[in-house]
Amino acid sequence: MKSQEIKRSKNKIADWNDHLDKKYGKVGTATRTKFESNAQAFVIGELLKDERHKANLTQEALAEKTGTKKSYISRIENGRADIQLSTLYKLIEQGLNRKLELYIR
User: Fold this and answer.
1) Count of CB atoms situated within 10 Å of the CB of 67
2) What's the start-to-end Cα distance of the chain, in Å?
3) What's the alpha-carbon Rg for the chain, to the nearest Å?
4) Separation between Cα atoms, residue 51 and residue 98, nearest integer Å
5) What is the pTM of this model?
């Protein structure tokens, strides 16, 4: 009987938020906040990289169009740089000719 209980518990699918709570702590803790901030930086970097590729631009070309540095574009795309909202708008709207919309939910 116990072996069946163990098998069931091993097959149980964990809720994503429960997983994050266990690994990084509850929402609002310093560790969880740092994780979420890093995750958002990663997402922004991936979105920027994807849109830059769709626009057939190199990091250097995007940097030239927006008055930034190629190394800064690289750090953003790799999730290793904090980015100001004004810079994000410039990269997306001026550099990629796209519209950036932000939502609060």
Assistant:
1) 10
2) 46
3) 20
4) 9
5) 0.77
Answer whether residue 14 shows pLDDT above 80.
no
Helix, strand, coil distribution of the chain in percent, nearest 5: 70, 0, 30
Domains of the chain: 16-95 (1.10.260.40)
pLDDT digits (tens, 9 = 90+) for 28-46: 999 999 999 999 999 999 9
Condensed to tens digits (0 to 9), the pLDDT of residues 43-92 reads: 999 999 999 999 999 999 999 999 999 999 999 999 999 899 999 999 99
Structure tokens at 101: 């919309």
Q: Is 65 exposed, middle or buried (0-12, 13-18, 19+ CB in 10 A)?
A: middle
In the structure encoding, which two tokens stand for residue 19, read together? 């997983």
**Three-state secondary-structure class, residue 71:** helix
Total residue count of the chain as it appears in this document: 105
φ and ψ at residue 32, rounded to 5 degrees: -65, -40
